[in-house]
Structure formats: structure tokens, C-alpha cells
Fold these 2 entries.
Entry 1:
Amino acid sequence: MSDHISLPLALAAEQFAKLPGVGIKTAQRLAYHMLNLPEEEVCEFAENLVKARKSVKLCRCCQNFTERDICELCSDDNRRKDQICVVESPKDVSAFERAGGYEGLYHVLHGLLSPMDGVTAEELKIKELLARLGDVKEVIMATNPTVEGEATAMYIGRLIKPMGIKVTRLAYGLPAGSALEFADDVTLVKALENRSEL
Amino acid sequence: MSDHISLPLALAAEQFAKLPGVGIKTAQRLAYHMLNLPEEEVCEFAENLVKARKSVKLCRCCQNFTERDICELCSDDNRRKDQICVVESPKDVSAFERAGGYEGLYHVLHGLLSPMDGVTAEELKIKELLARLGDVKEVIMATNPTVEGEATAMYIGRLIKPMGIKVTRLAYGLPAGSALEFADDVTLVKALENRSEL
């Protein structure tokens, strides 16, 4: 950061530049915004972030972020206990819940297997998944349709199938509202392979 | 924010969503990043922002952000004291200093006249500018080449000219490294009007 800009501006910009996807220009813009806010609002912003970080725990059951021991979804009696949808991160749980239509439970891996980045099975919440499969009839592997997502789904599937539990994978296909001409080849081939009768 | 995502995640995301140019998806991504950081790093992030906000003052002379009474630029004996470059915001001072080549002083207005947004002359640091024109020979109006920037430059120019001080405006023209075919009409006309001899 240039030493010509004022120290407080540089200090604030430095903080924002630590965030993923925030470059120097954006960091400076955000810092400028912060320094123009009333002091109380900046304090509130900062305190709420610290509060959120301090109060966050991983649900003992599904490993999702929560401020309780067992999260709301896991302790909801209206949800099916025999289906577990395995996702990469808490954001994915939000996505499914927003979409609606799924009534089972979740399991958050907090990452995907990635030998390139040195992420091994021990770093993911796989042990915790295996430990909660008692009455489970189906495990839905809902990791992203990427190389890492596929590899992780395959790896976990291979661990679970011998236990006599059904393991399924999200469907590949054309996204709703998209156009054929813009679909990539892999998606198009999968959409054709997985065609269903009208 | 959906009530299905965990409370700490929602709380953190809410904070980021307050920032300008940060939508819900980005806010959630940043919140997720924060909750995955070690607690000390989140505290450091928060404390530094509050520290920056608390330590920031406006330079008594040029109104730029600083942590001192008189900023570094204003107290630098090597700078020309008879030239003042008037800009909208502290970011613009950084931009000029980064570019180099200017050795005079600055004056930060902290905004532009904008009747549409209810920003009047009283809210800008115009009084402070007029109060420091004693030995000044030239005031360079370096507000953005936008409607508000032009209007503000004109307004301030009209106040200063009667004091016998030279008032200048940044040149309009083609940006370096750009292509004629992509220039907008106004820029092209101005570039032609302001052509210089080779």
C-alpha cells in the first residue's frame, strides 16, 4: 500500500485486503467507506463480526455452523432422519434450504479432497459422517460437480456402500432456464445420457 | 437473510452486506471465510478497523484523512505551497501521489455538489478551502469528469476567480493506451478541441 495515503486509511484497507476476492482497489474503497461512517457503526460492525466468530460452533451431529450444541435442523423432529445429504460447506446447506423440497438431514464436510492443495480425508468431517449412519437408509452425495467434488463423492461412496446403505449422487444436466447452445460439452453429454421419459 | 442458515453466519453476513458494493452472496462468502478463521485473526481484523476509525482525523489544512493535526503532505517543506489541487476524496490524493509529478498541495472536498442527492455547498469543505488561499497562485480543480464533478469545479471556480487566483481544470482527452474506436463521443470531441501542436 502506498505510504502517501494516510495511516488510518492504509490500516483499514489492509484489513479488507485480507478478505478473499478483495483486491487493493476494493479494499481502499471499503476502507474509505468505513472511515466515513460514524464511530459507533464501525464499532458495531467489528463487534458483531467478533461476536459471530466467538459464538459459532460446529453442530455435534451434522458439523454445520450453529451457536448451539445440536443445530436447528438436526433437532427438528419434522425432518426425516434416514436421509443424509452430504455437502462441502454450510453455504450449500443454505442453498438447499432456500430451494426447498429436501426434508432429510445434512452433513457438512468442510472441504473437498484435494491432493493438489494437500487436503486429505483426515481434514474433512468424514469420521463424523461414518459415526452417524446407524439408522440411515440413503446418503446423497451433493458435492459440487467438479473434479474435487466427484473424487470426494466417490471416496465417501466407497466407504459407505459396504455398510449396505444406498449412496446416490446429484443429477448432472442442463440448468433450468439455460440455453442448449451455451451448455458445455460434458453437461450436454450427461444431459443426453440421463434423459428421462416424457 | 434466510433463517435456515446458522445465526452466527447470518450475523457475520449481515455486517458485510452493509458494505457498499457487497451483495448477499458475497457477504455470505466473506462471512463464511471469517467464521473459518482463527478467533484471534477475526479479533485483529475487527480491532484494526476500529483503531483506524478512532485514530482518523481530517487534516486541519487540506482535510485529507490523517492521524495527525496537520497531515504529512501539508507539513512537507519540499512541496510547493502556492498550488492547491482540489479533489473529491482522499482516494484521489492517493491516485495523484501514486502517479507522481505533482508537487503542490491538495484540498479534499469530501464529496461533490449534487442537488439530486441533497448535497449542498455547506456539506463540502469549501469554506476551509477559501480560508487557506492566502499565498496561493493556482487552484487546480481535479474533480471527476462527471456532471457533479464539473458543476462543483464551476461553482468553486466562480468563488475563487474574483480573488485574482488562477483556477485551472484537468484536461479532458483520450486516456493513455486506449483506442479511438472505443472512446465515447464527448471524450472524442474534447480530445479534438484540445489538440496540441506536435
Entry 2:
Amino acid sequence: MQLKWVEGGVCAPKGFVANGMLAGIKKNSKKDDVALIFSDTVCSAAGVFTQNKVTAEPVKLTRSRCREGHAQAIFINSGNANACTGAQGAKNAQRMSDAAVKALNDFAPSPVPINKDDVLIASTGVIGVQLPIEKIEKITSDLVHGLSKDGNTKARVAIMTTDTKFKECAVEFELDGKKVHIGTMAKGSGMIHINMGTMIASVTTDCCISSQMLDKALRESVAGTYNCVSVDGDTSTNDSMMILANGQAQNSEIITTGKNYELFLEALNAVNTKMARKIAADGEGAEHLIECTVTGASTVQSARSLAKSVISSSLVKAAFFGKDANWGRILCALGYSGELFTPEKTSVTFSNSKGSEKVFDHGVPLNFDEDKASIILNEKEIKILVEMEDGKATGTAWGCDLTYNYVKINGDYRT
Amino acid sequence: MQLKWVEGGVCAPKGFVANGMLAGIKKNSKKDDVALIFSDTVCSAAGVFTQNKVTAEPVKLTRSRCREGHAQAIFINSGNANACTGAQGAKNAQRMSDAAVKALNDFAPSPVPINKDDVLIASTGVIGVQLPIEKIEKITSDLVHGLSKDGNTKARVAIMTTDTKFKECAVEFELDGKKVHIGTMAKGSGMIHINMGTMIASVTTDCCISSQMLDKALRESVAGTYNCVSVDGDTSTNDSMMILANGQAQNSEIITTGKNYELFLEALNAVNTKMARKIAADGEGAEHLIECTVTGASTVQSARSLAKSVISSSLVKAAFFGKDANWGRILCALGYSGELFTPEKTSVTFSNSKGSEKVFDHGVPLNFDEDKASIILNEKEIKILVEMEDGKATGTAWGCDLTYNYVKINGDYRT
């Protein structure tokens, strides 16, 4: 398939506008902290959410709305997670949604009134502090008035917390001779682990696809992309990934698996993989992006699980920070992954644009070139290839190194 | 039961001697690196080992010997893990054992010759480098000649790697009116996680107990002590815990569960709990010992699992380093533990000798005293009490904070 990377992020698909503004949720912060994405027609909607038993209030609300399969807007705040906030938190989540519905209908940017349950909301930031909902309510009308086709540039920044870079991308591809777009933005830097590799991601598309197929594609794609990212092993109370599809590309609706479903999934995978790499590279304090690919595993699930175990290991992560070719820790992490494999038929190679160096071959340590390894490990991106001979499946996971700055950022996050 | 803490470590029980020496396994290191523990009569023996699929060669050998239920000596080296070393590594593990058997029989410190399979061996240190076995063979005879009743002071240091403190203790208690002793030493500072909370621990006792009951007591005790310690989430290739019981206390042999078994288990738990705390407090780079106790959980297993999740969280660990009362991360870690509980009936309190401060009460954040919390968090030892109302079970886990020094130590461990 021809995939063309395009500008515009969540506004790249037809019919979508966005905006970002400062509500002042976090004291003394001057960065925009509320973002709104809006489609001028109702969309198929799907979402995947944290598996944490302690679930933030906006997640509870949005999860039940995604089950209905339709929505028209995504309203996100940073600076406060609205988690562990009890009954008042639930009330505030509802008020946040209500404020968006009211402002959207007052200003009427869509031809028909927006349904009161068609806003998906998400919050990210500190846990256990009540959301200053009045501040959000106060600016929602202005936020709606400012919705625009280039508002993605404001929205993508407004959702950031400890992120050092905004994260967005968009693709264009063809279905039935019609141009279809998928756009996305995400935030995520710490408290990131494999069971939902980000705190909040929004995907928009003008593809015409049923909510059932949209849900299926989202789950399938997330398993091999966002769910293969780890920064620190902590899955948050707020992880949310939402997708809206408004059908304005006018391809014939995807209502079953088949060629068009596969094409859509391929494009979605491309977008999500790019975002997964961006999130790992911008992991809190990260100096290196670490990509681990396991080949020759017995199943795809096993390959992914082995790769995730490697990039999740604190010792592996600290070794990459120290630019130390300590491959023994990689073997160790493979060994405690819980997956079956044959250590005697396992090999390990480090590589990137600077070269390739095999350090372990079929269970035996190699007398490798430390200087060549050091040149590879000095680069920003490092690939670990783990070759096994237990099957034919491949899996990749993305992570980052563990640095002084990770400790610093998280030692004084709240205060 | 009356438990009396005594001096002597692994040499406290009757009939045990020990020694430590420098073999020069790690280049340029002047610290003793081989340790030997010896009982002048054959012992009941048991062991628990790493569940890592990548298992060091000495672990393979020692595990099979522990299954036989008898042994007479424990021979340990630091500086090299003899892991990921293939067929040559297996040969070297056997040579290490053979060297001890030969030296012990040449010098004949025991009335009858030691059986060639009655030496348990263990190695700890860097992974993937061949063991310099000749250096060990060269000094084994001197090591045996130097065995003595106060050799625990040398042995406990010889097994250390990145440990900053030696770890040993011993207790005395009574069974059938006889004085019984349990002594132990352990090393462990990094690559430590809940499925075997240390790399190497040796326990000696003069209790008369069958190998079946010894094995049962060891497994039962480890589940609530060593297996509840986490420093960094990495389970090593070399984790080994071995226990020798020579029966010289002359109590009537424990061959079944019952009062005497329970008394022995209680003493073993006391010893192992003390060691678990020592290991967590000396976690690589650690500045704080964190003890998390969960009460009111549905089962003991669930309580332990919840407590382990808290002390394993990188974000919780970084917050304690920063002396930040960020209790939201504790809730978050409880939530992704995989255990069922009721967040709305959960409360969290920080405490230690400086005071006690409840921060979260039945699902609702408290407006707690930040100054009082800060005084508590400035201490070396911090207790987190998590009160639930889902049942009556209690569990405790031990960990440490995540510091710049952890990253530093592990960034340049190999080089």
C-alpha cells in the first residue's frame, strides 16, 4: 500500500477541527492545558483504556461512552488526572463533558446539535487532587470559538505534561479510489508500561468504517504498537486511547474484515508505531531510544513478551545509559519473561546506523569488538536484535534508558 | 517463643566453621572473593533457586544436589556469575565443587570423608565471562586450612559484590529443652526482585530436622520474607538460597509438622525477615528502606502481592528519593497489581519513629499536614500502611528508593 505522511495531525482527516487553551489548572503554569478535537458530523468511536483497578473518573465515563460506538468530540485536560478523587471527581468529569456539549451547541459549529453523551473526555496530571472544574468551564466557550483546521498545533501542546516534545503524525492512503486520512496526537512520558503504552492518545480518521470494525482494528493495532512501549513499568490510572471515524472520505463503509479492513489496519499500525517510537524516545529523562526485536520465537505474543521484558529491565536500561554493552542483562531479562525459549540457540546483536556487532552467538559469549560496540551505543537510537530458533514469529518493543534525570523528574513531580 | 539474637552468623550453630579468601577473580579487586561454609557432619539440605529460564551453571548443579536432601559444605565465589557460559561454564562449576571436595578430604577436618556430591556451590558477579577456575583451584586448599569458628566474619565479606554492608544474623531458641541455633549470611543489592529476593543466601542450623521438613520450612519462610523484597525488578540468573541442618543440637528430629516444626519455622522467619530488611535497605544506591504492609486483604497471597506492587514501582521509589508524599502513585501501583480490592475502602498512612500521617481515607484524599509528612519522609526507614476492608489477611514487602546512585552503579557495572 502507498502510505503518504502528511501534516495536520488530528486535523488532517476531513471534517475535524481542534484547539488548545490555557485554563490554569496547574498553579503557575503558563502552558495551554485544555484541548478539544471536534468532528462536524457524528463519528464511529472506539477506545481502549487502562487495566489499572484504580481508574480515573474521566476513564469511567469515556469507557462507557465508547461502548455505545459513537461520539463527536474529544475533550482533554492536562495538569490534573482527576483520579482517586471519589464522588466529587465523578461529578467534575460529568461537568467537564457537559461544558463542552453546551459550548458546542451554543456556538453550533455542527449542522445538528451534538448529543449530550457524544463527548469523550480524558485527564492527565497529578493524582489525588480535585479538578478545578470552574476554571475549565470558564474557558470552554472560548475554546470552542477558536476551533480551527490548524488547531492541531495548539491541541498537541495542551495535552503535554512532562513530555519534552509534542507527538503527532498523520497519513494519507487510498480506499476504493478515495483519499483516506488517519491523524493522531498523544502525550506520554512517564508512568508508561506495556499494558497501554501511553496515558492519552487521540486518533481521528475520515475513513468510513463501522464502530465494530473500528474497535477491532484499534485493539489489533494497539497490541503490537502502544502496548509494546515501556518507560518505567508503571501503568497509570488514566491511560486512554480514543479513535473517531467520521466517514467523510466517502469510501464504502468497512463493515467486515477483508482487503479494505487490512489496508485501514496497515495505515493505523504505521501511525501507531510511529507514535510508540516517539513516546519511548521522549521517555522521562531518556537519552536513548531502545528498540528490541525478537525473531524466531514460537508465537507473536511470545516474541513481543520477550522483547518487552528486555526493554522493561531497569538493569538493561541503566546499562544503555552507561553505554555499556552488558548483554548478560539482556539474556537475564529474556529468562525471567515467563516465555519458553532455548538459551543455547539464542543470539544477540547491537546495531544502528553506525554499524552492527554480534555479542552472543547460539548460547556462547563472543569476544566482540568493544570499540565498535561503543560507537553503536553512543548513538541516540539503538537496536537490539535477539535471534532465536524456536519458531518463526517476530515481535518488537520500544523503550528508553534509565537516567539520572528520570529519577530527578520523578523525585519532585508533585511539589 | 523466646528468640535470642546471637553473634556468629553461619558459625553460630554447633559444628559449623567458615572462611573467606582472595582468589583474584575480578581483576584489580583486593576484596576476598571466595567463601566456604563447612559442617563437620553431614547435614539435611534444601534450597530454593531462581525461576529465570537463563540459569547459571552452579545453580543447575546445586539444584540437583539439593534434591538429594543432603550436603556438608557451601562454596561460593563473587566477581563472576558463571552464567551464559555454555559447556565450559558447566565444566568449571563441576571443577569448583571437585576442588572443595579434594581439599576437604586432604585436610580431613571431618571424621569421615566428604561425599563428592555434598558440596553446594554458588557464583555471583558479572554474567557472560568464563570463570577463572584455576585461580579458585589454586587457593582452595588454603581456604580449607583456614576454616574456623569465627570465619563467618571473612565469609560474609567474601560473598559481597555491590553490597555496601555485609548481611548476617543468628538466633538461639529452645526445642525439647535443647538450645538450637539458626545462622545466616547473604549477599544481594541489585538485580533483586520478588521471585527470590536475593542472589545468594546461606542458612546453617544445628536443628535436627529431616530434609523433607527442612525443604518445607524453607519454602514456607521464603514466600513471606526473601520473596517479598524488590530492589529493581530484575530476577537474576544466579539466585540461590541454601540451608544446611546438621542436627548437632540433639533435639528429637523434626519429621512432621506440629509444635516443634512451627517453632523452627518461627525462628527461620525471624532470621529471614531480618535479612530481607537488610537487603532492601542496602539496595543499590538506596537512601531509604521502604516497608509496605497491607492489612484487610482477602488472602495472604493477595496482601503480599499488593505490597510488592507498591515497593516495586519505579515512580513510588523515585518519589521517596525526592521525599515527596505522592500517595497517588501508591494507589496507582495497588491498582495494577492484578489483585482485586475496593479502592473506595482503602486508606493509606505514612509512619515511622518520627510520627504517623494518614494521607488517604476510604477512597478520599485527605488535606494532610505536608510538614509532618516531610519529617517522616526524611528518615532512613519509612513504613507505608495500606488498610483495606476486603478480608482479614496481612502481608508485608520491603524495598528501597530509586536514586541517582542506582543509575550510576548500574550504568558502569561491567566496565
